[in-house]
Amino acid sequence: METLVAIDLGASSGRLMLGRLDWSEKKLSLIEVYRFRTEGTRVMGGVYWDVLRFYDEIKEGLRLCSQMCEGGLVSLGVDSWGVDFAALDERGELVSVPRHYRDPRTEGVMEEVFRIFPREEIFSLTGIQFMRINTLYQLYAMMRTPAAAITRRILMMADFFNYLLSGEIASEQTLASTTQLYDVFNHDWCWPLIERLGLNPAWFQRIVPPGTVLGELTDQLREELGLTETVVVAPASHDTASAIAAVPARGESFIYISAGTWSLMGVELNRPVVNEDVLRVGFTNEVGVEGTIRFLKNITGFWLLQECVRRWTSEGAKVEYGDLVREALDAPAFRCFVNPDDPVFLNPRSMPEAIRDFCKRTGQEPPRGRSEVVRCVLESLALRHREIYERLRGLLKRSFESVYVVGGGSRNEVFCQYIADALNLPVYAGPAEATAIGNILTQACAMRGKVSLPVIRRIVRCSFEPRVYNPENTSEWDEAFKKYKEVV
């Protein structure tokens, strides 16, 4: 029995998951050892990540893991959200507090970049969809600040924490591919783009594939935590890449949805798809485990509901997330819709008000109470996924047999049923902890010398039973989709 730890950093919470793997039975069991909040901190108009607190939280979680590992801890690895980074000086210390991707400093930056390097050329090299949160625009915005002059290295968030744990500096490939500064064809940094924009080439570190053994824990941490023989592995360090590795599918005719704060919907390909149609509809080509391409669309996911809950709680209401979702079923169906990806929902002061304002602006009667707001969001999310599904079929000229929903959103029974109804496809929901599972199994394979997607997915199928949702009321959803398209 091998014991490994996934340090899974999401946009709203971080978790340390302890995995026990029986190779002979191909069985993995998981225990959530520690959880902590990772939401951004707003200071003087900016939004930041409190990474030093996160580091203390990680150490506390590792202390608890150490106490639970009688036979020792084989390895650990960090995964995180994409696009955000930490800047280090010549001594390897933080230059400043890392910015959150929702920080306003990137407003208008995309247009400035396009005047130097045209949009079409950027896409032809990187294959990445255009979002103002991308690392490319964050770095270009940073160029105007004093921090740029003393920055010597850039590390993406999971890479930064792997560095703090091991002392080794490297850029893991799946995470690097989210930056829009990665050459998706040559699998290296996109040097022509970096140089023409005036970014310092020395900022960009060596790229390593998922499953790279970085080294042992630092001397300080080995002594502090009592983990004397534990090594640090760079797993699929982008959380979505780890989650997709843990999709328990066979064959290739499936769509995946990694559902959480963001919802990532797409397919797994052997090579990137980069053409005018893909650019037009905003799909992206990110790297996955074993050099696969995650051809997907970023959709704003449960962020809308999370922000509604946060607002209602701040107003003094006692709000239980599960109760809200169940109460939404009693609200009128298909009454109003929003586009979850409209910029007004990126970082509003009040999400419920932003939803009502969108409905008013588009000639709809706005939702009147909490249950109607939640139903509006859930139906809109499902119909947005239907919209992306139609575009995906059109781009690839192929059909699909099933949908696999992984991540925290797979626990939301209403959402999963709505996806089955809206797409008219069976939905296999789970595992909810796909990111941690993919992280741990990538580490486990790496410690045996070879990372293998078929091996990872076989273990997932043996260890976790998905819940199946079959389509219902599909004609009603077809009519709702027509109304959604007219409104949105």
CATH C-level name of the largest domain: Alpha Beta
The fold-level CATH name of the largest domain is Nucleotidyltransferase, domain 5
Total of domains? 2
Mean pLDDT across residues: 96
Backbone CA Rg:
22 Å
Q: What percentage of the residues does DSSP assign to strands (E)?
A: 15-25%
- Number of helical runs? 19
How many strands in all?
Answer: 21
Structure description:
- The protein starts with a strand and ends with a helix.
- It is 40% helix and 21% strand.
- It is α/β, with parallel strands linked by helices and 488 residues long.
- The chain folds into 2 domains: 2-239, ATPase, nucleotide binding domain (Nucleotidyltransferase, domain 5, 2-Layer Sandwich), CATH 3.30.420; 247-430 and 452-488, Nucleotidyltransferase, domain 5, CATH 3.30.420.
Could you provide a short overview of the structure?
By secondary structure, the protein is of the alpha/beta class. The chain has helices at residues 51-68, 109-116, 119-126, 135-142, 147-150, 157-166, 173-176, 191-196, 219-225, 239-245, 276-281, 303-314, 321-328, 351-361, 370-396, 413-423, 434-447, 453-463, 474-487, and strands spanning 2-9, 13-22, 27-37, 41-43, 46-48, 75-79, 85-88, 153-156, 171-172, 182-183, 188-189, 207-208, 212-216, 231-234, 254-259, 262-269, 284-287, 293-300, 402-406, 427-429, 467-469. Strand 19, helix 16 and strand 20 (427-429) form a beta-alpha-beta unit.
